[in-house]
Amino acid sequence: MASASSLSTSSRSAAAPAAAAPSFRQRRWVRMAAPLVLALVLAVLPLVLPEFANETIARIGVFAVAVLGLNVVMGYTGQVSLGQIFFLGVGAYVTAYGVQNDWNIVLVFVLACLIPAVAGLIVALAAARLGGLAIAMVTVALPIVGVPLAKRLSEFTGGSQGLSARFADNPEWTGLYDDQWQLYIVLVIGGIVFLLTRYLVRGKYGRAFAIVKGNENVASSMGISPYRYKVLAFTIASLIGGVSGFLYMLVVQYTSPETMSFGHSIELLAAMVIGGAGSIVGSILGGAWYVLVPQLTNAVDASLTALLQGAVLLLVLFVLPGGLASLPRALTRGRRRSGADRGVGAPPTTPSSTAGSGTAAEGSERERQGPA
Amino acid sequence: MGTFIQLVIDGLSTGSVYAALALAIVLVHSATGLINFAQGGMAVLAAYFAWYLTNQGVPLIVAILLSIVFSFALGAVVERWLMRRFERGDPDTAVVVTIGLLTLITGIAGWLWTYNNQQFPSLFPLDTVSFLGVSVSIRSIGTTVVIVVAMVLLQALFVGTKLGLALRAVAINPQSAAFSGLPVGRLLMVGWGLAAVLGAVAGALVAPQLTLTPGMLDNALVYALAAVILGGLTSPVGVVVAAWIIGILENLAAVYVPFIGHDLKIAVPFILLFVVLIVRPQGLFGRKTVVRV
């Protein structure tokens, strides 16, 4: 049954330390200082890196936000969505249209969040009605309908030509280059989205999502409506998708119907699973995967990109179901297991802090062993 | 009126292609409880196989028959070596696996035969026949007839043979089937193989029209999934009827509703889907499933 929990490994994140001395990551001063150091590094990095690196990091940030949104609905709530790229596309189009019509940039940002969120809400209200895999089956249509729709609504979208828009040019007083200024905006907006999402999935709503993911019947018996929480998760995912669309427009400055093609939708899902489902760090890794791997494979052989993506996705699902984010844990677990074989130390027992989600997941597994 | 009947018959033929794909999805779902997003991709691979054989000088009909054998083996191999591990686990993970498989198959086809459109020879002549004053394309009729025959044969297999009985037993309750001595694993392979065959038939029939590309059936997959939801996962007849309704409606909408036109007709099943999901979430013909906690 090890593979069954593949997408839910995150619920075991607290399994690492056993008893004795607190590990490095648990020491108080490390926990206090680490975010500060991270913020400091992120603040300094754009100033010292070359332009190309800044642009690449900014693109990674854009897609990390998109993957994070996908993670909310898929990694944390367990509903497969193939439509995330559609909301990125809608956000990008709204941004481009607003900028071209000289709307206030704050208003553009709010609209770029709200319009995809409303679209996502409508889709989820219908799709989540049918339990199980219906969300996957309905959302697969979003990119496939979205591309011809964008071509058709050419007065808003510019048709197949697409729209380009330039905004957030670097103001005079900063003395920064454009790429640095853009990266700072991506880091600030992306950072806020990541922080908010982190609080969301670790709090009350996150626990509700985890129970819906683990077992819908248990959830409804606890007074948690699976339908309502699925719709909520999907709407939040669409909203975050809209934010990533805004950032996409900021960094790439151009969007066309191709932005939300079916292929990109699948790549985004692959990036999320490879990065690590249900993991904040995994979302960043997923964004990096989405941006960097096509660059690498294009350098080798462009026709191999899809083949490699598919092969790696399957490989990850087989050997590392928690994605790249679970790699360190998998390695330490392997080491500890070989230690246990020699009679030193004991394997970790049950997770401590995330007991709720853990038991829910286990309950569902046990139930599935019975006759269907 | 003439155009209308022509549109309906053309719609019936594209609807049959969706129906075959949708039926394959239902077949896999009833056997293993998961949705195979790679069903279209596997059919495309079979179509490429047939296309490759015809380029080597094999007659078209033989090539298609060989590609059917090939896709049966492909389905069985995929079930045994890829899906088996994920079947009794989380269905969402299994779905992601099939999406990975779709990417992989698309990648393999694109790598071996490029992403350019290839001409696939048509099994039927491109002429039209006049019937009661209406000209109807032979290809549309032929496609519909072949797929209906394939579905009837499949139904006969399921209802009338011992193998079919065993397949149904495994679909209903794998544990009990195993206790009564059925080789569950091998039967699951057969089920996946049959589903892949159905897809391959559809792929070979639609390939001349769409021209062969690795993503040829991506749109058809969306139609098929819409048909599966509309018809209800538990009702094969409902799925086929829904696929025909979708095929006919989108063809009519493309011509008679100016805003939709040919490029947006894929939105038709989607709109239909919304209405049905709101009004009748178990599908037009499906029954409500009750789960015991």
UniProtKB/TrEMBL annotation, chain A:
Membrane topology field: Multi-pass membrane protein
Q: Does the keyword Transport apply?
A: no
Bias regions of kind Basic and acidic residues — which residues? 363-372
Q: Specify where it is mainly localized.
A: membrane
Where does the record place it?
A: Cell membrane
Alphabetical keyword list: Cell membrane, Membrane, Transmembrane, Transmembrane helix
Start-end of Low complexity biased regions: 345-362
Q: Write out the ranges of the annotated region (Disordered).
A: 335-372
Q: What are the recorded GO MF terms, alphabetically?
A: branched-chain amino acid transmembrane transporter activity
Segments passing through the bilayer: 30-49, 56-76, 106-127, 133-150, 183-201, 231-256, 268-292, 304-327
Keyword S-adenosyl-L-methionine tagged? no
List, alphabetically, the InterPro entries matched.
Answer: ABC_transp_permease, LivM-like
Superkingdom: Bacteria
Per the record, GO CC terms? Answer: plasma membrane
Name of the protein in its database record? Amino acid/amide ABC transporter membrane protein 2 (HAAT family)
TrEMBL record, chain B:
Q: Which UniProt keywords apply?
A: Amino-acid transport, Cell membrane, Membrane, Transmembrane, Transmembrane helix, Transport
One GO BP on record is: amino acid transport
Q: Name one GO molecular function term.
A: transmembrane transporter activity
What are the TM regions of this chain, as residue ranges?
6-27, 60-82, 94-114, 145-167, 187-208, 220-249, 255-279
GO (cellular component) term, any one:
plasma membrane
Q: How does it sit in the membrane?
A: Multi-pass membrane protein
Where does the UniProt entry say this protein principally localizes?
membrane
Q: Which family does it belong to?
A: Belongs to the binding-protein-dependent transport system permease family. LivHM subfamily.
Cellular compartments annotated: Cell membrane
The keyword Protein biosynthesis is annotated on this UniProt entry: no
Q: Does the keyword Phosphoprotein apply?
A: no
Protein name, as recorded: Amino acid/amide ABC transporter membrane protein 1 (HAAT family)
Spell out the CDD domains in the cross-references.
Answer: TM_PBP1_LivH_like
Domain of life of the source: Bacteria
Instruction: Give the source species.
Output: Blastococcus saxobsidens
InterPro entries xref list: ABC_transp_permease, BCAA_transport_permease
Q: Name one Pfam family in it.
A: BPD_transp_2
